[in-house]
Amino acid sequence: MPNKNLKDFDLAELRKLGEKPFYGSILFTWLHNKAAASIAEITALPKTFRADLQSNGFVVENLQLLKRADDPDGTRKYLFNLPDGQKIETVLLRDGDRRTLCVSTQVGCRMACAFCATGRMRFRRNLSAGEIVDQVIQVEKIEKTKIQNLVYMGMGEPLDNYENVLKSIRILNNQAGKNIGARHITISTCGLVPGIEKLADEGLQVRLAVSLHAATDAVRGKLMPINKKYPVADLRRALQNYQKKTGRRLTFEYIMLDGVNDTREHARGLLKLLGGLSAQINLLEYNPHLRADFRPSPRKTIREFWWITTDRGFATAIRYKRGQNISAACGQLYADN
């Protein structure tokens, strides 16, 4: 029988493990606020209860840091080993005193986006809720700092691992634990319509970011295979419904690819698609890697695209390359170094 990782359990579940519910509260606090690496370290609990947990197959599993890499721009990347030997990458973005952690949700990815290194990997498995949460625990422990913002934009498609992602958010959002505010958490998706529809009914005040990258099926279908299953019109309907139910502003990520999706016509098509939606547009400077042949759009082209969208009233930001020197930038994660 496989071990049961206590980090996979939320507070309510931990409180049901013993006769005294407050034992579960102690467990939760020590796991998430004290970064206890084993049951033996949780000395606030009676020895008998700790022994019972161990005899019933409960453990505390920890990601193992294999390598840390630093970019001159302040970005830091971590290569972690999972308990079964699989590997993932996690990225810390630093902006003054602000700390944002980009977490992975899968080993590999099924989505196979043409521009993404992770998409070139063979999908191996989903991460458990505890493995997602532990990326935050371990980075805070390593850096002796507090993570204020969390983005589910690392390896994998978050909505393809829906239940574990949502559970990890609830664990990390819990005031008794990391207490990361829901409005400081962003879920990114390539456009899994059923997941978006389900998320609309969760009652969570998280941010939703959509990796769009093209406004037409003709272009998006070549870049993102998922578009063939959920074309642009279906995606827009799901997002309209999401916004109607949640009242939340949407973020659209748009990678600028030279000669592919960066013309004035493409900009006008994007404006047409997003008309009527409350949206923030992020224009991403493409991060080249050896697993794709795309080129980044010239910065002059990116600025012109920005001007067109801004002139029509959309809040638009340009996100220039960060973490490029250590392969930690958007679309570069591969867990191979």
Describe the protein's architecture and organization.
- With 337 residues, this protein is α/β, with parallel strands linked by helices.
- The chain folds into two domains: 4-59, DNA polymerase, domain 1; 64-326, TIM Barrel (Alpha-Beta Barrel).
- 32% of the residues lie in helices and 20% in strands.
- The protein is built from eleven helices and 14 strands.
- The chain has helices at residues 11-14, 21-32, 47-55, 129-143, 162-173, 193-199, 217-223, 226-229, 232-246, 264-274, 299-311, and strands spanning 4-5, 58-59, 64-70, 76-81, 87-95, 98-102, 106-107, 125-126, 149-152, 185-189, 207-211, 250-256, 279-285, 315-319.
- The strands form three sheets. Strands 3-4-5-6-9-10-11-12-13-14 form a ten-stranded mixed beta sheet, covered by helices on one side. A two-stranded parallel ribbon has the order 1-2. It has a two-stranded antiparallel sheet with strand order 7-8.
- β10, α6 (193-199) and β11 form a beta-alpha-beta unit.
- α4 packs across α5 (162-173), α6 (193-199) runs parallel beside α9 and α10 runs parallel beside α11 (299-311).
- The mean pLDDT is 92.
